[in-house]
Amino acid sequence: MLPLITGAVEDRSARGIAAAVSRLITTGRLPAGERLPTVRAVAGSLGVSPTTVSEAWRNLTLAGAIDTRGRSGTYVSGPALPRFAQLGRPSVALARDLSTGVPDPELLPDLSDALGRIGDGRWAGSYLDEPVLPALEAVLRDRWPFPPERLTVVDGALDALDRLVDVVVRYGDHVLVENPAFPPLLDRLQAAGATVIGVPLGDAGLDPDVLRQLLAERRPVALFLQPRAQNPTGVSMTAARAAALARVLRGAPHLLVVEDDHAGDIATAPPVSLGTHLPGRTVHVASFSKSHGPDLRLAAVGGPAAVVDQVIERRLLGPGWSSRLLQGVLLDLLTDPGVIESVAAARTAYAERRAALLAALGRRGVTATAADGINLWMSVPDQQNAMVTLAAHGIGAAPGAPFCVTPLGGDHLRLTAGLVAGGFDDLAEVLASAVFQTGRGSGARGRGHPHGWR
Which residues form the HTH gntR-type domain (predicted)? Predict the structure, then answer.
């Protein structure tokens, strides 16, 4: 065991040792349950101080790769179930699955005309063409919340986040995110070996005081946030809060801000961005999945050239570019007056659905928030019992725990309010039963849950 570890280490810094051991675990050469050599044994074999190895072990522990059991020793952790997998899909068919977080297909624009117009061969390019259609780039720049130094198009918001993590984050880096946050992003950061730190989220955005404290204590390399229609809470950052956060972030010039504007044109909040204040340190991701169609698989990435150029160059070793045919469809959709009107109608419909469901829940004493977008974040006394109760009524919901970097002081469920087109009182009655039937002993009906999200 000891020769295996020391033989894999090329960089004898704490980060290098942690990265080497992490690779051994990932490839299965250090299997789950394997006991690791002592810190002193590894330090002696590598010729470094025990403090260096202890720091490497600490980074591996924070990343969930190893588990220290006191005097029993340190062991390789078993494979953790990704947060995204914990959201799950119902094992049986449900009458109403609200766990998905997807837009209502009935509210997406009709692509027929756009597909017909791009079928005339105009978009049949070559490997040497620009990766982004010039006309599309011009439209995107006009829509951008700040002037981006460089802009490109990738295969959806998650593709963008994946590539930005690859560019920005190294093993052992500290990264700030919202708490609660989007589970696939947390999975990706964990896979990169980052130490993920949650920043509390209020009804105007991130807490600037906590952010200031974390910047001083942790020296994070990046802050990932959703500027509007935050998933799962629906919170949107206000212009005043963006200015306050920017004042704090000016004291950390090493940190990059990554904004995931996943809701796009169906969000009712204006496109507020930290890039307005920090354009040289903000990368903004604009997705079109929820507004124009998930299967378009397109998102734009804009910001400082030093970062976006690395995304562009790395893609040359893989897909190279996103389909110009689909880019042509998106260009058509973004400039067609009928589609613009259709997306505006969808934005209004989602707002009406959120408001109607929130009002129905409020009349029943249920604590929930759904300020924007398509999701609703509901407080429950026990998420597992609440999900079982809902499933018995044919309703699926996503558990709140995978969204939480650290516990929020109470359990939650995320429901896709955007898929609820009617029957709000009937649904609210069932949701209330999941809250109060599973909450006996923690509060009478009508008082709500005492640990509601704030």
Answer: 11-79
Write the DSSP string, 94-119: -SEE--S----GGGSPP-HHHHHHGG
Angle at 258 between CA 18 and CA 243, to 5 degrees: 125
Cα–Cα distance measured from residue 322 to residue 330, given in angstroms and rounded to the nearest whole number: 12
Q: Within 13 A of 112's CA, how many CA atoms are on the CB side?
A: 1
CA pair distance 193, 207, nearest whole angstrom = 25
Alpha carbons 110 and 210: distance in angstroms, whole number: 44
Percent of the chain with pLDDT over 90: 69
Q: Give the model confidence (pLDDT) of 343-401 as tens digits.
A: 999 999 999 999 999 999 999 999 999 999 999 999 999 888 888 889 888 899 999 99
DSSP-derived secondary structure letter, 438: S
Residue keyed to tokens 């896709």: 416
Domain limits at 120?
Answer: 110-335
CB atoms within 10 A of CB 450: 13
Tell me if 441 is assigned to some domain.
no
Residue 19's CATH number:
1.10.10.10
**What confidence category does residue 107 fall into, taking pLDDT thresholds of 50, 70 and 90?**
very high
Distances (CA, A) of 223 to 63, 80, 158, 170, 350: 18, 24, 16, 14, 29
Whether residues 330 and 394 fall in one domain: no
Query: Strand 256-261 vs strand 222-225: parallel, antiparallel, or unpaired?
Result: parallel
Q: How does pLDDT run across 219-238, given as a tens digit for each residue? A: 999 999 999 999 999 999 99
24 touches 5 (CB < 8 A): yes
Q: CB under 8 Å to 177, separation ≥6 — which residues?
A: 185, 186, 189, 196, 197, 198, 199, 223, 224, 225, 405
Q: Is 391 exposed, middle or buried (0-12, 13-18, 19+ CB in 10 A)?
A: middle
On whether residue 192 sits in a domain, the answer given is yes
Name the residue among 133, 231, 136 with its Cα closest to residue 177.
Answer: 231
The structure's pTM equals 0.84
Is residue 407 included in any domain, yes or no?
yes
